[in-house]
Every structure is written in structure tokens, then in C-alpha cells.
Design brief:
Helix content is about 35%, strand content about 20%. The strands form four sheets. Strands 1, 2, 3, 4, 5, 6, 13, 14 and 15 form a nine-stranded mixed β-sheet that branches. It has about 425 residues and is α+β, with helices and mostly antiparallel strands. Helix 3 (about 110-125) links the parallel strand 3 and strand 4. The protein folds into two domains: about 5-220 and about 335-420, 3-Layer(aba) Sandwich (Aminopeptidase), CATH 3.40.630; about 220-330, Alpha-Beta Plaits. Helix 3 packs across helix 12. It is built from twelve helices and 17 strands. Bound molecules: (2S)-amino(hydroxy)ethanoic acid and manganese (II) ion (MN) (2 copies). One manganese (II) ion binds near residues 99, 141 and 384. InterPro entries: Amidase_Cbmase, Bact_exopeptidase_dim_dom, Peptidase_M20. Keywords: Hydrolase. It comes from Asanoa siamensis.
């Protein structure tokens, strides 16, 4: 594989292998963690790794790691830091799972690009001084078990494995049952060995005008479930003055979230609702909604959520209903390693450095090792929807950029593990 044209062609070929997996009639994807579609993508990962002689290790949390090591012995056993635990070296990758009817690129692009970057480096005769590992993190979207970046949070100890094991999906299945065992939880032996993590991801807004960019930060964000309790009753015989209708409180909460976000240049979304009994001719007894709130800084985010909860509670008082907010998954502000971001942007010829409002596994890993993100241009900015797209030429430019970064970071260790400091 040599010319850019070859790379576009190769990308298109490999991308086509995935495009039918978990695809819904509307062109969106239903790739929930450990669903048949996502398991098929895991099988694809194993096949890609095997075809490249990259041994795959599991961390006991549903995350997969395929390693290319210069020191691979006959068994393919690798050791980056010489202590025989994790592979060490440079980690790259992303996730396979999608939001319901999400786009094709959010997640898988980072994994496909990582394998193709390995191919590109090998085709150019490069041999890394440190291992290069491709990761597939589990349940990044939190679409099945409700906690975003569940796999990387388990790996880094950011969530208690016992709590995670009890998380249930919409059918009441617990994570522990799906995994067949309690998740392993924190794996410092794996994480500590890596020098750096670099995640390539499709950009999910319209801020990137160049084919490739580098991330500076991730907005603080989270998801809060709100439960509104009222009184179920007959739609036709119950006087309006006698009602305790939770749908009114819910509707007001949605409008309050919209208004309070706009007042703060923040983002608030209520995209999911459950109504009990969800009958056309009955006043609901209960309505459950989820608030996704994000802001440029933590103080603004806290003020936004507090204002929405306050106004919703006041409204519940007027409606004769009760409302309760529960934080299900929250992520603090992530500022990526500035020096690393500047170094990579320079390495790539001065590409833009920009923040994002989207969460990523890189946000979780950044608390534990030098972390960077490469963005591939999204021409429409649409994401988490079937229309999400990226041009083949930009995706190929992303592979080229990731290969360049992996070559740089696997040639000279970033972290001196003996002293545990980033160089
Ligand atoms: O929701 C997010 O920001 C990410 O796509 N998980
Ligand atoms: Mn996403
Ligand atoms: Mn993603």
C-alpha cells in the first residue's frame, strides 16, 4: 500500500466489511454492547488481529487489546515495560457500540483506522521500538447499561465493578449476567504500562474545516434521570382540576432545560422518555425522562442542572406531582495534555486544535496516562444519527495521520516507567 489513492481504496474496502453489521433500515446502527451485531464486530476485531499476527488480550471488563510488538516471541507474548504484565507501549483504538440508530463512524472509525495505520507502518518497513496496541472499548455510549464509557471506566477503576455488575439493560438483564462473571474492575497492571493513548474519532460537530484535527478538551457533561410520579386516571372522566398529571411536569422540565441551556450557552437534551402506562386514553401515573446536559466548564454545568431541577420541582408542586433527579453518569472537564496535543498538531503539519462536547474513552484514560485525540472531519457535523458521514479521502488522511503519530510515539517512549514521569 503506497499512494494516497491506494489508501482511500483500502479504507473503502475494509470499511465495507463493517457497514452491513447492525445496520437498521433507516441506515442507522443498532450495535449495543454484547448484542449480536456488536459481538460480530468483536469477531471482526479478532480476525483482523489474527491476520496481522497481533495477539489479543481481554481485560475481564469486555475490552479487547490487539498488540503489535517488536519483541513478540514465538508465542506472540509481548512485554512493553519488561515486567510481563500489560503490553505497554502506545495504545490506540476506540469503541464499536452505537447509540440507537447512530451513525457508522462514531467509534468504529477509530478501530479500523488503527489496524490500517499498523498496515501502513509495516508496508513502509517501520518496526516500533515499543509495542502498539489497538483497543476496542466496551459500552462507550452507555446505550445498553446507562453508564457512558463503562469499559474504560472499569479498566481504570473509575466505577466499582460490583456496582457495574448490577447495572441492567432495558430488558432487565444485568451486566454480570451478560458477561457471565463480575467484571474484573481496575487493571493498573495494564494501564500503567502504556506510554500514551491516542484515539482517532470522527468529529461530531461542524468545527473542523481541515481533514484532520487534534482535540484540546472535552466539555464536562452527564446524564440525569428524572422520575415524575403522578396519579393515573381516566382521560375522559377526570376533571382537569382533579388531575395530578406527571406528563405536564415532564413537558415543563423539557422546556426548562432548553431555556436554561440557551441562557448559559450550554447544551441540554431530553431525548428519551418512558411513560407508564403509556396508554392513549389514560392519564399517566409516572413519567421517566433523561436529561443530557453539557457545558464548557463545570460551574456552568452544575448551575444548569441545578436551575432545571429547581424549576421542575416548583412545577411539580403546582401539578401535585413528585419529581426526583438521579445522576446516572457524569464526566468532569477533560483537558488533554497540552504539550502532547501541540506536539501532534505540529507533527501533522499544524492541524487545528479544538474542543469537543462529545465524551470519549480518551476522556477517561486521560486521568491515567498522556492522552490525545485525532479528529476526522465531519462535513455535515451530524452524529448520533443515520446521516453521520465522513469522506473516504478524509478517513484515509486520518489513517495517514494516525500512522504518523503511532510511528512517532512508539519510537521514543513518552513515559520513563522507572521514574513514572512523562518526558
Ligand atoms: O455521548 C457522547 O458524548 C459520546 O458519544 N458517548
Ligand atoms: Mn457517540
Ligand atoms: Mn464515540
Amino acid at each position: 500500500m503506497s499512494s494516497d489513492l491506494d489508501l482511500v481504496h483500502t479504507f473503502r474496502e475494509v470499511w465495507a466489511e463493517l457497514s452491513g453489521i447492525g445496520r437498521a433500515p433507516d441506515g442507522g446502527y443498532l450495535r449495543f454492547a454484547w448484542s449480536p451485531a456488536e459481538v460480530a464486530l468483536r469477531d471482526w476485531f479478532h480476525a483482523q488481529a489474527a491476520s496481522r499476527d497481533m495477539p489479543v488480550t481481554h481485560d475481564g471488563n469486555g475490552n479487547l487489546f490487539a498488540t503489535w510488538s517488536p519483541a513478540a516471541g514465538a508465542s506472540g507474548a509481548v512485554s512493553g515495560r519488561g515486567d510481563g504484565n500489560g503490553p505497554g507501549g502506545v495504545l490506540t483504538g476506540s469503541h464499536f457500540d452505537s447509540v440507537p440508530h447512530g451513525g457508522a463512524f462514531d467509534g468504529p472509525l477509530g478501530i479500523v483506522s488503527a489496524f490500517l495505520a499498523v498496515d501502513l507502518l509495516r508496508a513502509r518497513g517501520f518496526r516500533p521500538a515499543r509495542p502498539i496496541t489497538v483497543a476496542a472499548f466496551a459500552e462507550e455510549e452507555g446505550s445498553r447499561f446507562g453508564v457512558a464509557c463503562l469499559g474504560s471506566r472499569l479498566l481504570t477503576g473509575a466505577i466499582d465493578p460490583a456496582r457495574a455488575a448490577e447495572l441492567t439493560d432495558r430488558d432487565g438483564l444485568a451486566l454480570g449476567d451478560v458477561l457471565g462473571a463480575a467484571p474484573a474492575g481496575a487493571r493498573p497492571d495494564l494501564v500503567a504500562g502504556f506510554d500514551a493513548y491516542v484515539e482517532l474519532h470522527v468529529e461530531q460537530g461542524r468545527a473542523l474545516a481541515a481533514p484532520v484535527g487534534v482535540a484540546s478538551a472535552i466539555w464536562p457533561h452527564g446524564r440525569w434521570r428524572f422520575d415524575v410520579e403522578g396519579e393515573g386516571n381516566h382521560a375522559g372522566t377526570t376533571l382537569m382540576s382533579d388531575r395530578r398529571d406527571p406528563m405536564l411536569t415532564y413537558a415543563f422540565t423539557v422546556l426548562a432545560a432548553n431555556k436554561e441551556a440557551r441562557l448559559r450557552d450550554a447544551h441540554a437534551t431530553v431525548g428519551r422518555v418512558e411513560v407508564t402506562p403509556n396508554a392513549t386514553n389514560a392519564i399517566p401515573s409516572a413519567v421517566r425522562g433523561w436529561l443530557d446536559a453539557r457545558a464548557a466548564d463545570e460551574a456552568t454545568l452544575a448551575a444548569l442542572v441545578e436551575a432545571v431541577a429547581k424549576k421542575a420541582t416548583e412545577r411539580a408542586g403546582r401539578d401535585g406531582t413528585g419529581i426526583r433527579f438521579t445522576a446516572e453518569s457524569t464526566t468532569g472537564e477533560v483537558r488533554f495534555d497540552e504539550g502532547l496535543a501541540a506536539r501532534l498538531a505540529g507533527l501533522l503539519g499544524g492541524v487545528p486544535i479544538l474542543p469537543t462536547g462529545a465524551g470519549h474513552d480518551a476522556g477517561v484514560l486521560s486521568a491515567h496516562l498522556p492522552t490525545a485525540m485525532l479528529f476526522v472531519r465531519n462535513p455535515t457535523g451530524v452524529s448520533h444519527a443515520p446521516a453521520e458521514t465522513a469522506a473516504d479521502a478524509d478517513c484515509a488522511a486520518g489513517v495517514e495521520a494516525l500512522a504518523r503519530v503511532l510511528e512517532e510515539l512508539s519510537s521514543t517512549p513518552l513515559v520513563d516507567h522507572d521514574e513514572g514521569v512523562a518526558k
